[in-house]
Amino acid sequence: MRKWMLEVAIGVVPVLLIFLGVIGVDVVPFIIALIMFGVLFAAIKLRSGGITIGAAQDKNRKKQGLAKLTFEQIGGQESAKLELREALDFMVRHEEISKFGIRPIKGILLTGPPGTGKTLLAKAAAHYTNAVFVAASGSEFVEMYVGVGASRIRDLFKEARTRAAKENKENAIIFIDEIEVIGGKREGGQQREYDQTLNQLLTEMDGIYSSETPRILLIAATNRKEMLDSALLRPGRFDRHIQVDLPDKKGRMHILELHAQNKPIETNVNLEKIAEESFGFSGAQLESVMNEAAIYAMRDGLEQISQAHLSMAIDKVMLGEKTDRQATEEEKRRVAIHELGHAIAAEVVAPGSVSQVALSPRGRALGYVRHNPQDEKYLYTKAYLEGQIMIALAGAAAEEIYYGGRSTGSSNDFEQALNIVHTMMTSGLTSLGIVNMDMVTTEVLMHENARILEELAEKTKQTLLQHSAVFDKSLDILFQEERLSGDQFRCQFRDSVRLPA
Ligand SMILES: Nc1ncnc2c1ncn2[C@@H]1O[C@H](COP(=O)(O)OP(=O)(O)OP(=O)(O)O)[C@@H](O)[C@H]1O
Ligand SMILES: [Zn+2]
Questions:
Q1: Which H helix or E strand runs over 180?
Q2: What percent of the residues of the chain are helix, what percent strand, and what percent coil, each to the nearest 5?
Q3: Which atom of ligand 1 lies closest to the CA of 247?
Q4: How far is the CA of 309 from the centre of ligand 2 (A)?
């Protein structure tokens, strides 16, 4: 119903009722009917989402709202920021670009693991280009009725245009997170329901012209680029790809500093050490570390966050919350054996690398080995990768030696080992040589996979057997104390190795 019709009705109906009343007609049934109609109308509007309820509106506003996010407020990601800014300069300097006849950029794809700041980059891009920012996420399109997805896409573009006009802005950025949900490969069959949505997106992108105002730029984010339909990646669509990686140490430091800004932190806290210990963390996880540390400080009734709070927060984010579930003695022994297996292999492969072995009834991991920070590597040798596989396999190998069989506690380890083997294969570091992975049959790959893993598993087992004396002594301490420091552990190591077995 149009707004003016509603207004006319609201004006006319009471007058009509009064008139009928005056000429002696019984108006009560009319009024009852009117109230029922009103209730029904409101219910329908509410269900179809026509009336937005406060909270949802707030959420939407928060999502769209830029809060003036700039590139400076994003930690690390220097090369992603640089590439993005270069691409955006095309949008800003449109006159020069068109003089040279350069095709404007319509779509930028940000790829990388979750929580690395892709959404932040898109928001900063909008700030940088003084653009309106309109956002949607692929997950919104899950289980939408046929046709609804396509119309949501149409609305996004419409919203970008009307908001830009209203706010008097020349540029508009449309951000689509989790694009793989709607942009998955179309030949798959089960993706069918998203076809119309994807087609609508492609149509809208083709309808972007550089001469029109606002200039529209799409930014999409995914952590599964290989799943995207090739039509999306063609020139004139998402043809700029920017990799957003996990932050390196400097990046982690920067992110920690940013999230420490609004928190009271003891002056002697060494954030650099926290950055070192949080190897492999995403920006979102680092934000969590800071937040959890603050919670620990508050729980302790202190005014400021200490180094210990931060260390505990790292453990928590890494392993999940402490659980109440107590491991049985038998489980504890098995976990101790498993973790010592990892630790011994790590110490043999990279002497000095173990910083702590611990049993702890936390989250999914009942125990863990913490490694000293290593220099971050960008290139890996075959020997290094094989060493990492041995460390991963050593937990299960130790269980086999002591129990004659494995438990279910090694599935993560195996996954890790398989990932490394995969890296070796794609880098030409296996006996297959340099291969095009698409051309090799699954059978050949599985055979090579099994060969590598069996060989290394055997080597790992022999290594552990050679150090059985270290094993036994460390096991006693670990079982008693539930904790073995790297130095304590190395002590056992030196003593036992000196004695010929
Ligand atoms: N580089 C960073 N600098 C500062 N904070 C960051 C950074 N990366 C992530 N964060 C923190 O993590 C939160 C989530 O980041 P963001 O939503 O941008 O990640 P994303 O890559 O879009 O993740 P997803 O793929 O899960 O959507 C941010 O709100 C911020 O608090
Ligand atoms: Zn393990």
A1: helix 180-183
A2: 60, 10, 30
A3: 1
A4: 26
CA torsion angle for 337, 339, 342, 343 (degrees, to 10)? -100
Q: For a pocket test of ligand 1, which of 287, 291, 292, 317 has the largest count of ligand atoms closer than 8 A to its C-beta?
A: 287
119 lines ligand 1 (CB under 6 A): yes
Atom nearest to 137 CA in ligand 1: 27
Nearest atom (ligand 1) to Cα of 223? 25
501: CB partners within 8 A, 6+ apart: 466, 468, 469
Q: Is the Cβ atom of 138 under 6 angstroms away from ligand 1? A: no
CA atoms of 4 and 14, how far apart (whole Å)? 16
Mean pLDDT of all residues in 26-51: 57
CA 11 to centroid of ligand 2, rounded, Å: 74
Query: Which of the following is catalytic: 180, 204, 287, 339?
Result: 339
Alpha helices in 320-381, H assignment, sequence order = 329-349
Q: For residues 21 and 18, what is the distance between their CA atoms, to the nearest angstrom?
A: 5
Indicate the Cα dihedral angle 31, 32, 37, 38, nearest 10°. 70
Q: Tell me the per-residue pLDDT of 203-260, one tens digit each, with 9 for 90 and over.
A: 999 888 877 889 999 999 998 888 888 889 988 899 899 989 888 888 999 999 999 9
Distance in angstroms (rounded) separating the CA atoms of residues 6 and 3: 5
For residue 158, give both structure tokens: 């419409």
Question: What is the rounded distance in angstroms from the CA atom of residue 489 to the CA atom of residue 484?
Answer: 6
Sheet hosting strand 238-243, strand order edge to edge: 131-137, 171-177, 215-222, 107-111, 238-243
Q: Averaged over 56-71, what is the pLDDT? A: 54
- How many angstroms does the Cα of residue 161 sit away from the middle of ligand 1? 27
How large a percentage of the chain has pLDDT more than 70? 80
- Specify which residues 220 forms β-bridges with: 109, 176
Q: Is 81 exposed, middle or buried (0-12, 13-18, 19+ CB in 10 A)?
A: buried
197 pLDDT higher than 70: yes
Cα 449 from Cα 424, distance rounded (Å): 10
H helical segments located in 247-381: 249-260, 271-277, 283-299, 307-319, 329-349
What integer best gives the mean pLDDT of the chain? 82
* SS3 (DSSP) at 208: coil
When mean pLDDT is compared across 11-20, 265-274, 434-443, the lowest value belongs to 11-20
Number of residues assigned to the chain? 501
Higher pLDDT among residues 479 and 54, named by residue: 479
Residue 341 Cβ contacting ligand 1 at under 6 Å: no
Phi/psi at 67 (nearest 5 deg)? 50, 30
Render pLDDT for 441-496 as a digit per residue (tens, 0 to 9): 888 889 999 999 999 999 999 999 999 999 999 998 888 777 788 888 998 887 76
ipTM: 0.92
